[in-house]
Automatic annotation (TrEMBL):
It comes from the Bacteria. This is Exodeoxyribonuclease III. Pfam families: Exo_endo_phos (PF03372). Gene3D superfamilies: Endonuclease/exonuclease/phosphatase. GO terms for biological process: DNA repair. Mg(2+) binds at residues 7, 34, 148, 150, 248-249. Residues 4-249 form the Endonuclease/exonuclease/phosphatase domain. Belongs to the DNA repair enzymes AP/ExoA family. The record marks 150 as: Transition state stabilizer. It comes from Mucilaginibacter galii. The gene is xthA1.
């Protein structure tokens, strides 16, 4: 089973890119972030014609998350939004059960500028995610938390880390929050398979960041103990970032062995 996450940066504006990628790589399940579309504007017809069912949690102009699954897999929606979400008007989390796995698709707040209310909101949202993640682990079932975490966990996850010390994606408080989440018992899929390699998932549109491979690793897969042992492969479809009118993120994916 192949599961992917992709911050599409506008599902309607980038729809040709999304459909091309789905056709070329055929993941079984896809988590999308930054739909930037209200609920009624999600391109369901095009997604269905590509061979996928979908659930989504939209928001006008900003945010928005979705889970797609090939039509042979039933999507059972479990929740949208976190328990005690600090701001329910922001569509940042959706959760479903697919093929015996609970999948939480998330778009964690950026948090800039820091210090300030956006950074405080990011930390509050992170705290609620961590509480929910802890509860999910108590069920002792396969769970995957994936999406755009807007965190570079360590210095090897960012090009020239000294330039990011005051950024909300790399602040010590945010990195500590990510570590606290992982230390509950989650496995960072990319780092399990590639513990020391330079791997990025985001390249800014400015200063030829993609051409220079001046990137960040901010899109992550966290696996519960019940699914971690099934991990076979993980990677980034970096080439998608080089396509015309593409997102500033590349799709990230994992493959799991059958149960």
């Amino acid at each position: 089973m192949k599961i992917a996450t992709y911050n599409v940066n506008g599902v309607n504006g980038r729809l040709p890119v999304l459909l091309r990628w789905l056709n070329e790589t055929a993941p079984d399940v896809v988590c999308l972030q930054e739909l930037k579309a209200p609920q009624e504007k999600f391109p369901l017809t095009a997604i269905e014609e590509a061979g996928y069912n979908a659930i989504w949690h939209g928001q006008k102009s900003w945010n928005g998350v979705a889970i797609l699954a090939k039509k042979q897999f039933e999507i059972k929606e479990l929740r949208r939004g976190l328990p005690d979400d600090p701001d329910e008007a922001q569509s940042r989390y959706i959760e479903a059960s697919i093929n015996g796995i609970v999948i939480g698709c998330l778009y964690l707040p950026n948090g800039n500028p820091t210090p300030g209310p956006k950074f405080e909101y990011k930390l509050r949202w992170f705290e609620q995610l961590t509480l929910h993640a802890q509860k999910l682990l108590t069920y002792k079932i396969p769970v995957i938390l994936t999406g755009d975490f807007n965190v570079m966990p360590t210095e090897i996850d960012v090009y020239k880390p000294e330039r990011w010390v005051d950024d909300a994606l790399f602040r010590p408080e945010v990195r500590a929050a990510f570590k606290n989440l992982v230390d509950q018992g989650w496995t960072d899929a990319i780092r399990k398979l590639y513990p020391t390699e330079t791997i990025y998932t985001f390249w800014d549109y400015f200063r030829n960041a993609y051409g220079r491979n001046a990137g960040l690793r901010i899109d992550h897969f966290l696996l519960s103990p019940e699914v971690e042992g099934r991990l076979l492969e993980a990677g980034v479809d970096k080439q998608v970032r080089g396509w015309e009118k593409t997102s500033d993120h590349g799709p990230v994916w994992i493959t799991l062995a059958d149960e």
